[in-house]
Amino acid sequence: MLTQRRPPQRSVLASTNATRSVWLVGLFVLLLLLCALSVTVGTRDVDWGDILAGVQGKVDSIGQAAVNVRIPRTVLAVLAGGGLALAGAIMQGVTRNPLADPGILGVNMGASLAVVISVAWFDISSAEAFIWVAVAGAGSAAVFVYTIGSLGRGGATPLKLALAGAATSVAFASMVIAVVLPRNDIAGGIQSWQIGGVGGATFERILPVLPFLAAGFIISLLSARKLNSLALGDDLAAGLGERVALTRAVAAFGAVLLCGATTAVCGPIGFLGLVVPHLCRLLIGVDYRWLLPFSALGGACLLLVADVLGRLIARPAELDVGIVTAFFGAPFFIWAVRRQRVREL
Which residue ranges run through the membrane (predicted)? Predict the structure, then answer.
């Protein structure tokens, strides 16, 4: 009797990885197209001659100057979107919480509170100091939320972490208002920054944050295999030789660097770290070796789209990306809660 032989598993995996590679290249091409769109589209119509001249650094006309301003804005949107989405994927893996997000877990608001206090009470004004303070605030908030969520029976469950993060975000937001209210001299600037946006970006503002973002990207991407082990459960991961606590701490540190640095330069931008990893899971699955780079590219694309839409919706004014992301992020959060029912990953 003849038996039908199964194809070797290796060929199936290769086919799957080949498909993912095609999707990854396609996402990168989409990112390049969106960068071109971000440079060419804005609150002011600019002809192609001024666009080409502006890209080359010329500022002889208003149109060329407008294009010249859009270039660093586009670069910042790519870095911020990629960093926040990657941080969201890392936090979901570290906490095994499908609703984890730098905004929902209070990390962004912790960075915001630290920056506001440093400005209002210590008169800190340098970009480098803002970054260090924001990273410290993000890290402190992450530790605080995880500690609160770990109290009681069952340890740090997804539901307890989500509730602790939401309560912490509300408390920190109230503290920000309390710090800013007596200071009319800084209230306007702080309130504008609190919305979250990439407008007014310059390469002088971007350069100080690059080392922090680079370190965060590298640490986060190198944590992919270990996050796959954590997804199997702490006991099984430990049985496979993983140092669970150290793995969580290192991966979380990469996410904190990304959140703190991004918040320092852009302000708190919510929901991006929640939406993008979920969409990427629907596309390529739960393997973090693929999910993390997909999330980074997807976050950059989504923030670019939000920025372009913000310029077009309110012409001749514009909406900051923090407002635009909230419009589609809040309904997605409600859908995710109903669908996932706060299960572990």
Answer: 21-41, 71-91, 103-124, 130-149, 161-181, 206-224, 245-270, 290-309, 321-338
Tokens of 290: 């693929």
Count each helix (H run) and each strand (E run) in the chain, helices first.
15, 0
Cα separation, 90 vs 224, in Å, equals 9
Collapse the DSSP code of 153 into the 3-class scheme (helix H, G, I; strand E, B; otherwise coil) and give the result.
Answer: coil
What is the Cα–Cα distance from 281 to 273, expressed in whole angstroms?
13
Please give the structure tokens belonging to residue 310.
Answer: 């913000």
Structure-block tokens of residue 319:
């909406």
Of 232, 239, 268, 238, the closest CA to residue 115 belongs to: 268
pLDDT at residue 73 above 70? yes
Summarised one tens digit per residue, pLDDT across range 31-41 is 999 999 998 88
**Rounded-to-integer distance, Cα 86 and Cα 137, Å:** 19
Q: Does residue 5 register a pLDDT over 50?
A: no
Residue 341, pLDDT score: 52
Question: Rounded distance, CA 217 to CA 220, Å?
Answer: 5
Q: In this structure, which amino acid lies at residue 239?
A: G
Tally of residues, the chain: 345
CA distance 92 to 30: 25
Residue 314 tokens read as 């309110």
User: First and final CA of the chain: distance in angstroms?
Assistant: 44
Structure pTM? Answer: 0.88
Give CA–CA dist 149/141, Å, rounded. 12
pLDDT band of 100, cuts 50, 70, 90: confident
Is residue 91 within 8 A of residue 252, CB to CB? The reply is yes
Answer with the residue of higher pLDDT: 69 or 211: 211
Structural domain boundaries in the chain: 26-340
Report angle CA 154, 159, 162 to the nearest 5 degrees: 125
Answer yes or no: are the C-beta atoms of 307 and 321 closer than 8 Å: yes
Domain 26-340 of CATH type 1.10.3470.10: yes
Is the backbone peptide bond immediately before 293 cis, with ω within 30 degrees of 0?
no
Smallest CA-to-CA distance from 64 within 37, 38, 40 is with 40
